[in-house]
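dumping this here before i forget
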Amino acid sequence: MLQVLYSGGTRELELSGTRRGLLMLGQMLRGKAGSCDLSENRHPFPYERPLSEITFREDPERDTASIVAEDQTLRIRGGREALDLLADNIEDFASEADASDHCHVDFPTYDYIAPESDPLVIAFMR
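structure:
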């Protein structure tokens, strides 16, 4: 189970899920392309709105991973190495973090994230 919440003012995204859901997303990102539907959240506070889908695809022309909210979709695309690093971070968080923890995955903190990316917070579903 996964959800993504979005704040237009700050462009910040919160990707949250169960441990199992986050681990499954990490594995999916290791593929060439794919998508998954997200759980609906009728009360996304403090964010403005929920997104309904994650799509991703490998782009061999890129060295970084782009993470951008467009309409109701979280779009992730990037080179294989960058997508694998993102998958590693998601899986490590899901495996090792405490239920109250969160982590920020953004540029310039992580050099494999493209500068145009929206700031991303990974957390466990509340």
